[in-house]
Amino acid sequence: MSVPAAAGASTAPSAQPPALDGHTYLSTGATGVTLVPGSTITLTFKDGSLQASGGCNSMGGTYTLDGDQLKTGAMFMTEMACDEPLMQQDQWLAEFLSDVTVSQSGDTLTLTDGTVTLTLLDKPVPPP
Fold first, then answer.
1. In Å, what is the CA distance from 47 to each residue of 3, 16, 19, 52, 73?
2. Region for 61 from its dihedrals, namely left if φ exceeds 0, alpha if ψ lies in -120 to 50, beta otherwise
3. pLDDT tens digits, residue range 11-32?
4. Confidence band (pLDDT; 50, 70, 90) for 9?
5. Alpha-carbon span 20 to 9, nearest angstrom
6. Distance of CA 68 to CAs 38, 64, 99, 101, 112, Å?
7. CA 61, CA 88: separation in Å to the nearest integer?
């Protein structure tokens, strides 16, 4: 037996946070920052962990979603020697990911800290 909605009550579903787990996203653009030409930022979400690359080193750690806020804890990072611009981009990415607003529209993921907006596209994963 269903209970009718109260007069004036909304029956629309509440906004849900993006379903990031199990997805890999590749950068397609950014505003507020210039990405190193030819580089791609990669974010992979799996089982509550985030692996990321700004074009040189790999980094990773845990992440949480609190509504539309993506937060990361301390991130580990490899220490490969790359050209200085890529190393700076890695450092910027680690700081940027620590607390950003996230939104999703179809296969497009958008992250912003209020100054920089990073746009990424879900990378299709071929079936096994």
1. 37, 18, 12, 14, 15
2. left
3. 333 344 568 888 999 999 999 9
4. very low
5. 30
6. 30, 10, 10, 5, 11
7. 19
The 3 state secondary structure assigned to the chain is CCCCCCCCCCCCCCCCCCCCCCEEEEEEEEECCCCCCCCCCEEEEECCEEEEECCCCEEEEEEEEECCEEEECCCEECCCCCCHHHHHHHHHHHHHCCEEEEEEECCEEEEECCCCEEEEEECCCCCC
> How big is the CA angle at 97 (ends 99 and 17), to the nearest 5 degrees?
65
- Give the Cα separation of 127 and 120 in Å (integer): 21
Q: What is the average pLDDT score of the chain?
A: 84
Unique residue bearing structure tokens 């580990």: 76
In this predicted structure, what is the pLDDT of residue 126? 61
pTM greater than 0.85: no
